[in-house]
Design brief:
2 copies of one chain form a homodimer. By secondary structure, chain A is of the alpha+beta class. The first copy, chain A, has 3 domains: 242 residues, 2-Layer Sandwich (BirA Bifunctional Protein, domain 2), CATH 3.30.930.10; 119 residues, YbaK protein; 91 residues, Rossmann fold. Helix content of chain A is 26%, strand content 28%. In chain A, the strands form 8 sheets. A 5-stranded mixed β-barrel of chain A has the order 9-10-20-11-12. The first copy, chain A, has a 5-stranded mixed β-sheet with strand order 27-26-28-29-30, with helices on both faces. A 4-stranded mixed β-sheet of chain A has the order 16-14-15-17. In chain A, a hairpin with a 4-residue loop joins strand 11 and strand 12. In chain A, helix 1 packs across helix 11. The two termini of chain A are 20 Å apart.
């Protein structure tokens, strides 16, 4: 392809966006920002996206059948699974103006995921056990009502997604398929050039299961996720599910006299610790929740931690957990919000205390009295040692893995895929059963498996760039060769390079040929570095009958004959 | 591909939908209806859709660059072109529930077309005359707030669209490109197998131009559009723009005495003609409009015609034309709605009379008096002959082409593409100018060019089916060969057919292999006819070492050797 004819060239301005991928992809002419979180893929960007999607397609074809489901779907389908009112990233469509409203006032869900379409679809066609297992997928544009779009292609309101759904007659068969899908996924990331940095992490299975789901995470400084790695077992946990043991603190002191201290308007544990002149670890954070609209829960963690509501929900064994209203807090604690503690709470309050609260002497907690904090609290003396301590905190750097007591290695990572065992959650909602060998109806088991091609494009750039630009892996590079012509006003040079261009294309090598006149060598070289095609060839007066060959990830160029270059390219 | 493993098999039930394409595509297992106007493409259907899109892509790549624009875009862009409040098929997105609304209450346009995205995009990159002309396109899912979804894939709320936009420095260059695009389009329809039935028709250029746009229409009994063909010139007009001359009526009578007849509550000209015992052609329909919020317009056509508001708008030379309110009608005519006529209207009313009203004796028109109709009206005697008659009626079968006075040939057709010269409508809205050779700013000219691949899939089925099923053109058939295995429990036969299957696939022939056991020959044959793959091969005990070869569009099968069959397939 001729660079002179391409739409979307490199930009001179050096505007920096909030992420390397946005900055480099926009500057390199791969994408254009239409609004925050929404992009147009220009010629170069679309080529990369298509290559990523085709690799995903080739591998997923080995375990599923491609179809294409619609984006707008009836709201009733989402009501059936109880997700219409509960999914906070859900968008719907509606008439855009009065004229449109007069013509058609119907509203539809604009799909962020397709369980609500694929489950009734499968149900229509497959009822006999003989048809199982099977799996359906599509590669499609998805929509999320994302409040914080950021990081370029990593988190947008509109993005590309491959979502695969598998159907099984037994949980065992689901598990087998699920395990195999991990191998297929790892092969995909290997082919995409990020395999060596991509790991499987345990993540939340969602509110509907005690089980884990699995995320494919690319270790990456600029990733949004935090992984907790247990070296002895080789297991990665997403922070949201990492079991955690707080590091022990120094307890070399005597019990002091309990006091209530007035500390009006103090915000946060840092300020409180300073005010009380104690380490943060001696403070206690107590939160009041309502569970399933009836039970009142007090949850306490050591200062410096936050409560992990998923862990708390599982400890409490409830389905809905929400922060108590200020009125309820006042009624229960007798104090305004901000002064709750675990002392002297009414009997109807269920108290869940994190293990980090234990093994401390002379700790602080809210006094359950407006403006007051109790200090020098000690278990057994000031309140009974609870029967059980829980793990209800969000893990943080420095924490220990409870089973082995080893310190976690904490790493930033970007999610590039995730898989969920859905079991019968959706098939039950649609009453989707199959007929077994004995003519009996039995529940269908499901799994779902996502990969975001546009997000992966962003992650690849985050992983593979230097201060000059992008370094595309060969499999997804927009072209294999960036051919730079210099001295193009010289007819001999131009005719020679045109021949080389034709020669390469005839051999099905994808070439981006920078044929621009009036652009100097330095600019062409820096454009090539920014665009990041793996191999750069330069032809000029100086190279004579030969060609200058340089890999994007190497410093040294060499002068070779075209034959040698072709050999190198074809052996790649 | 093995038919036993395919998702979406033929359906036994014989449910009929409102169109052949919906019925056959659903029954054949190509698509599944999620809701009216919204479909899932199953394995077979997606293969057809992809083939159509790839043919479109290959041809459009010769005149434009592929990109991919987003579906959700800021409302401000649509406000700039004044289309946010005026396009009645426009949808927008909004948070789907309270939780979502709390997180992000932003609303976005869900795009039915992309002038509002591509114009500012082009503007960002191309400012110098040297960069022109250029054209950008994408193939993408589009959304329309369609009130009447119908006819399967022909009219839906979500559909696939190729939309191309071209940019030019002069109107002349736009026109040249525009003319060339017609050739590219015709080649596409030729390759898609509907070229011989597809014609170019003149259609409305939209409110922003006096010019025509051009539609590509496939002549087809079940099409939604009506074309008016002028044989002597070879020109097709879409009904909405066909100039029309009403056929003359018998005037062999004397002028009778004008009378006002009471005819309370009569609805429509048919009832009126019966009531008055006159032919419908002697009645007159008069409508009152408001133009540009100030002018009052009375428009009259002969009974049996309706007013073509686009023609009227152009005759009146106004930009906004709307039906007058009942209050206005009463104020202007002195009568309730239903009794307006062209007699004795106040001077401030501008009267536009269609030519069909002329050349009649003793005609009827509303008396401008509630419940009364005037009969035996005659120009010159009862009212002045107007200075000018207009063509403001919707053409109908039987009408003449005014220039040559020949009778139109009227044909039903389905639109498969359309192209618009946009001139500077959108570039002006975005103030998109280029810098010419002399450093001066000049307006950029634009054209837009649409083709709907999913709609084309429906049109192909409408055109190419018989009572047994579909007859796909080779270029878009889901597979080239439907290989049917019979007597598969016989190991020799199964091993032979497996070899043939492998042999065909090795030669890159796309084969759908019906490998189902326990399905009888009749069912396999009728499935093959329904699915409509161009060539059917049967292998069974009876065929021995040979193969039965039959084309879908031929009745006779022949027994041939595999070598002969391969020759036939490869020569196809």
């Amino acid at each position: 392809m001729l660079y002179s004819k391409i739409f979307g060239k490199t930009k001179k301005d050096s505007k920096k966006y909030d992420s390397a991928n946005a900055t480099l992809l926009i500057k390199g002419g791969f994408i254009d920002q239409v609004m925050a979180g929404t992009y147009t893929y220009l010629t170069l960007g679309l080529r990369v996206l298509n290559k990523i999607e085709n690799i995903v397609r080739e591998e997923i074809n080995t375990i599923g059948s491609e179809i294409l489901m619609p984006s707008i779907v009836p709201q009733e389908l989402w009501a059936k699974t109880n997700r219409l009112e509960t999914v906070d990233v859900l968008m719907k469509t509606t008439a855009a103006n009065k004229l449109a409203l007069a013509k058609n006032s119907s509203e539809y869900v604009l799909s962020p995921t397709h369980e609500e379409v694929v489950t009734p679809l499968a149900q229509k066609f497959n009822l006999s056990y003989k048809d199982f297992p099977f799996a359906l997928y599509h590669i499609q544009t998805k929509f999320r009502n994302e409040p914080r779009v950021k990081s370029g292609l990593l988190r947008g309101r509109e993005f590309r997604m491959k979502d695969l759904y598998s159907f099984h007659t037994t949980e065992k068969n689901l598990k087998e398929y699920y395990e195999n899908s991990k191998k297929v996924y790892l092969k995909i990331f290997q082919r995409l050039g990020i395999g060596n940095d991509t790991v499987i992490a345990l993540a939340s299975g969602g509110s509907f299961t005690e089980d884990y789901s699995h995320e494919f995470q690319t270790i990456c400084e600029t990733g949004e996720d935090t992984l907790f790695f247990v070296k002895s077992t080789g297991i990665y946990y997403n922070r949201e599910v990492a079991p955690s043991l707080a590091p022990p603190i120094n307890n070399d002191e005597k019990m002091l006299e309990r006091k209530d201290v007035e500390g009006k308007g103090i915000k946060g544990v840092d300020e409180l610790a300073r005010f009380l002149n104690i380490p943060i670890e001696k403070t206690t954070k107590t939160m009041i929740y309502e569970a399933d609209d009836k039970r009142i829960i007090a949850a306490a963690v050591r200062g410096g931690y936050s409560i992990n509501e998923d862990k708390l929900r599982k400890a409490v064994k409830c389905s809905v957990l929400k922060m108590a209203s200020p009125e309820t807090v006042k009624k229960v604690t007798g104090a305004e919000v901000g002064y709750a503690g675990i002392l002297n709470l009414p009997k109807e309050v269920e108290i869940y205390i994190d293990e980090s609260v234990n093994n401390r002497l002379n700790f602080e907690c809210g006094a359950n009295k407006t403006n007051y904090h109790s200090i020098n609290i000690n278990f057994s003396r000031d309140l009974a040692l609870p029967k059980e301590f829980y793990d209800i905190k969000m893990a943080k750097d420095g924490d220990l893995y409870p089973e082995t007591k080893e310190k976690y290695e904490v790493k930033k990572a970007a999610e590039v895929g995730n898989i969920f065992p859905l079991y019968t959650k959706f098939t039950e909602a649609f009453d989707y059963k199959f007929i077994d060998q004995d003519g009996k109806e039995r529940p269908v088991y499901m799994g779902c498996y996502g990969i975001g091609p546009s997000r992966i494009m962003g992650v690849i750039v985050e992983m593979l760039h230097d201060d000059k630009g992008i370094l595309w892996p060969e499999a997804v590079a927009p072209f294999q060769v960036h051919l730079i012509g210099l001295d193009l006003k010289d007819e001999t040079v131009r005719s020679k390079i045109n021949n080389i261009y034709k020669n390469l294309e005839d051999k099905n090598i994808e070439v981006l040929y920078d044929d621009r006149e009036g652009v100097n060598a330095g600019e062409k070289f820096s454009d090539a570095d920014l665009i990041g095609i793996p191999v750069r060839l330069v032809v000029s007066k100086r190279t004579g009958e030969k060609v200058e060959y340089k890999k994007r990830n190497e410093k040294e160029a060499r002068i070779s004959s075209l034959e040698e270059v072709l050999k190198l390219l074809i052996s790649n």
